[in-house]
Amino acid sequence: MRYDLAVIGAGPAGLSAAVNASIRNKNVIIFGMDSPAISKTKWIKNYLGFETISGEELNENFKKTLASQDVERSTEKVQQIYAMGDYFTIILKGDQMIEATSVIVATGIELKKDLIGEDKFFGKGVSYCATCDASFYKGKEVVLIGYNEESVEEANYTAEVVDKLTYINMYKENPELNDNIEVINGEVPVEFVGEENPTTLKFKSGKEINADGFFIIRDSSKPERLVPSIKTDEEHIIIDKNCHTNIRGLYAAGDIAGRPYQINKAAGEGQVAALDAAKYITLVKEGKFDKETW
């Protein structure tokens, strides 16, 4: 199925973008879970229109606004986005795909630093989707570094496919894992070591573990891993005043597009991106899009 607009991220930037595009009669799908950074904030005292409001209440108000619009929501994790000319292909888990005329990336920012060697071995033994790549490790030993609830689901699935799975628990005490999964608690992973492919994961304590493959399951990943050929300035996607990226039809908004990391700024950029994307989508549909001037 092809949507007019796919919004990646369900924080204030993503929700704002989805609402504003839907109001303009665009067919919108938004991917993502609620933003924990907002919902877990006790009090917010600088959001226009509210003298003081809890993060949880503000987030619920955001969702109520979205509920009044005809917007499809999905909690599926987006693996990669490919520009195909006049549309985008969005890859989900299990090689599922959807298409969209335009995309707004509003994933927020991952403040955790990469492990040493993570970039070097990306796609060569380090992966971010266990359900996508577990089949490559049948009969082998795998390590999964888990930072969230999704990592528990991924670990339980992968353990049924591989010979041995070790879960590095960066998530919470006593995650609900299958009995055949070895769990390592209280260790901080710092580095992948190997030649062409990673063979060892080193920890801050000096402990090491060997494996044939490694999975890292975080809430988000670097923009260039999500969108090949996207231009970035360190951890941020580069945008212009209309939230355009260097890829035609692709926009970015919120924390992923730069500081300050503020709710007001994110919601505003989501609106700017949506308004421009709506204009772009209409021109493409009507065959009036001018590649030379846009």
From TrEMBL:
Record's Gene3D superfamilies? Answer: FAD/NAD(P)-binding domain
Q: Which InterPro entries match?
A: FAD/NAD-bd_sf, FAD/NAD-binding_dom, Ferredoxin-NADP_redctase_2
Kindly state which keywords UniProt assigns to this record, in alphabetical order.
Flavoprotein, Oxidoreductase
Occurrences of domain FAD/NAD(P)-binding (ranges): 3-270
Q: Which organism is it from?
A: Anaerococcus cruorum
Q: Which Pfam families match?
A: Pyr_redox_2
Cleavable signal peptide: none
UniProt-recorded name of the protein = NAD(P)/FAD-dependent oxidoreductase
